[in-house]
Amino acid sequence: MRVTVLDYASRAVFDEGRSLGGRRVVLTGFVARGPGGENLLVRMILTCCAADGRPVKVVLDGVVPAEPDTWVEVVGTYRAGSVVDGVNGERIPFLAVESVKVVPEPQRPYE
C-alpha cells in the first residue's frame, strides 16, 4: 500500500505500527544520512508555505544503494523501534527495507 512518509511515521510512532499490521508499504522520499551514519528516507512537509517546512524522517533498515539527496521509492514493512532525532528530539521510526528503486524527483516534492 502506498502511503506518505508522514502517514507511515505517524502510524509507526503513535500507535507503534498496529495500524500498519505487517503490510508491505511503498514510500517515496530522498535519502539522507543520520548523525550515526544510518540511511534515512526524508520528505519535507508544509503546513502553510515553504517557510514552515520541516522534515519527516524514517530510518531505512537494510541495504540502500543510493547516495544522499537521491530520490527513491522504498518497499518495506514496519519494524519496531525508533531513534531520537538529535535536532528536535522527535522519534524516528524504522522501516525494514525489501527493495529500493531510484526515481525522479516528484513534481510535488513536498507532502
Structure commentary:
The chain starts with a helix and ends in a 9-residue tail after the last strand. The chain has 111 residues and is mostly beta strands. It is globular and about 35 Å long. It has one helix at 5-14, and strands spanning 25-33, 39-45, 54-61, 71-84, 91-102. Helix content is 9%, strand content 45%. Strands 1-2-3-5-4 form a 5-stranded mixed β-barrel.
Mind sketching the topology for me?
Elements lengths: L4 H10 L10 E9 L5 E7 L8 E8 L9 E14 L6 E12 L9
Parallel strand pairs: 3-5
Antiparallel strand pairs: 1-2, 1-4, 2-3, 4-5
Say how many strands there are.
5
Strand content: over 45%
Order of strands in the sheet with most strands: 1-2-3-5-4
N-to-C order of helices and strands: HEEEEE
What oligomeric state do these chains adopt?
single chain
Please tell me what the overall shape is.
globular
| C-alpha end-to-end distance | 17 Å
**Rg estimate, integer Å:** 13 Å
What's the number of helices?
1
Largest sheet data:
5 strands, mixed, barrel
Q: Label the structural class.
A: mainly beta
- Percent of residues in helices comes to under 10%
Low-confidence stretches: none
Mean pLDDT: 93
